[in-house]
Amino acid sequence: MKMRLLAALFASLIGLAAQARDHAPMAIGLSTVADWSTQAPFLDHMKSARPWIGHVAGQWGGSDHAALAAGGHLDSDGWPLRIPRELGSIGTLILTDLPSEATAFEGRYLLRFEGNGIVEVTGRAANVRYGRNRVAFDFTPGDGPVEIRIQRTDRARQNDHVRNITVVREDQVDAFDQGAVFNPEWLSRLEPFGAMRFMDWMDTNNSQQETWADRPKPQDYTWARTGVPAEILVELANEADVDAWFNMPHRADDAYIRAFAALVRDALEPGRTAYVEYSNEVWNWQFEQTRWADAQANALWQAKDAGMQFYGMRAAQVAQIWSDVFGAEADTRLVNVISSQTGWPGLEELAFTAPLWVDQPKAPVAYFDAYAITGYFGGILGTDERAPMVRGWIEDSRQAAAARATAEGLEGADRQAFLDRHAFDQAFGLAGAELMNGEVTGNVSDTVSDLIATTWPYHAKVAAAQDLDLIMYEGGTHVVGLGALVDDPALTPFFTAFNYSAEMGALYQRLLDGWDEIGGQMFTAYVDVYAPTKWGSWGGLRHLEDRNPRWDALVGAE
Q1: Is residue 270 part of a domain?
Q2: Domain limits for position 154
Q3: Which pLDDT score is estimated for 24?
Q4: What pLDDT does residue 217 have?
Q5: Angle 539-541-546 from CA coordinates, rounded to 5°
Q6: 290 and 170, same structural domain?
Q7: Based on the domain organization, do 13 and 60 belong to the same domain?
């Protein structure tokens, strides 16, 4: 009975939470560019294509982009100059495993290319028609990819290899031919946001970029290999009329940083602000940048566990370069950002002060304008400790839904449809109440209330003490099974559904209100469009046609 009352109480609060009010400026992180993404940001789907797969005759695979490049088989933009003797074809994948609900992808597509060769389109492509240097096909989303294979190239041996392949939906070809880059259907969903964080688009985590020559370029055959080019990032910020948050590769040398800053200074339109952050989470050991920073600190200072000090030093150096490049405009056009692990109070001091950096003219923190933290909650539901409780909620909720269906006299298909819609209703209420303030267990750990009452106020004081704006670099739900629980047959579908429920919308509304209450500035939600998987429901939108309470809270819908 208590569980039902708690669920009902939380449900009654949802309507109150839906009354949106003005918030701090909203930003959005952009999800990874990939062939399987539901984001569809570019008119040309080749820019989201998987890096090359070289196919040995009679089998799938056998080679990849790195091997083809090492063998001298690719031109400067990544297009195959030839098909090596040991391979039968070189191919890629687009539009892979898209959910059937992602109907924006439906339509007839036109593939075009330059050069003398044969390009084959198979997989989910239907009604395929071949012409001179073009292939037209129909596509509907579902399991599997559209596969593109270069079967022959430079057939006349006149240095005329297949290149500049583009794949555009036919109704968008005219816009593409006139120079448009971005999908207007995607842009329209992001209109409410005032800034975009490009961490995933820049392939920041585990980046191997070191020199300006290593950077991704607009003419690269795909932007899903090493990241979206700086020129395209700036073009997007200008077209969408938003501020831009750039993450500098951790290995990048000073010349790279300076060239990137100069490009942004010259190309970002007046009125737009550049936020600049050195790498991403250089405390998170799952990323190569953390291990690299630790090794650099050890080599530089012969000190163990000094990676955060190296981060503070290098981040300050990067900030100095950007400020130098922007010159007198730095105060109005540039925000240098430093961050730390939100759940480890005090760790930021190592980055702020970097005491081992003995030749510093002043402490690293002096070079920054903003201090960035996170706003995640709910991961605790996916732990081994909480899993039995959540499974109990789910079973009780299913039984409650079945009892309702029986009371309403539903049978057959009508009963099943009712159960499909309402199986999790009671469990949603309990999960919402628990993640709001620990109402079910009495434990506030990893709840929205704990963020607002304890975690964020600590970091707000840190920022105020250093005269820094407090901003968020990522935030939102972290409700997902952890470890082996990602494969739990009961938890995974529940977590996925809960992440887009009215209860989650109420949690987001309280999260946003609480951020305002502690004086937070820009709130950056993670991320824009991403189909949920067992690994997480990170997308505010599951696909471009999606509408859900969580997204409504982010964009201020009532």
Answers
A1: yes
A2: 45-178
A3: 78
A4: 99
A5: 155
A6: no
A7: no
Q: What length is written for the chain?
A: 558
Burial class (CB in 10 A: 0-12, 13-18, 19+), 450: middle
Based on the fold, state whether residues 153 and 284 are members of the same structural domain.
no
Backbone angles phi, psi at 371, to 5 degrees: -115, 125
Residue type, 29: G
pLDDT at res. 19: 52
Tell whether 235 and 151 lie within a shared domain.
no
Boundary-marking domain end, from 178, 208, 227:
178
Residue 372 within a domain: yes
Q: What are phi and psi of 109, to 5 degrees?
A: -115, 155
* Torsion over CA: 499, 504, 507, 513 (sign): positive
Rounded distance between C-alpha atoms, residue 535 and residue 311, angstroms: 29
Count the domains in the chain.
2
**The one-letter amino acid at 208:** Q
The whole-model pTM stands at 0.96
Residues 314 and 193 in one domain: yes
Domain boundary among 144, 163, 178: 178
Contact at 8 Å (CB) between 515 and 443?
no
CA–CA dist 361, 557 (Å, integer): 48
The 10s digit of each residue's pLDDT in 436-460 is 999 999 999 999 999 999 999 999 9
Residues lower than pLDDT 50 in the chain:
16, 18, 20, 557-558
CA angle 67, 52, 141 (to 5 degrees): 155
pLDDT of residue 358: 85
Determine the Cα–Cα distance for residues 11 and 504; give it in Å rounded to an integer. 11
pLDDT score at 478: 99
Residue 3 is classified by DSSP as H
Q: Are residues 195 and 151 in the same domain?
A: no
341: Cβ contacts below 8 Å, ≥ 6 apart = 281, 283, 284, 347
Question: Which residues, at least 6 apart from 254, have a Cβ–Cβ distance to it below 8 Å?
Answer: 317, 321
Give 443-479 as a DSSP string.
--TTSHHHIIIIIHHHHHHHHHHTT-EEEEEEEEE--
Residues 432 and 330 in one domain: yes
Q: Tokens representing 8?
A: 């009902």
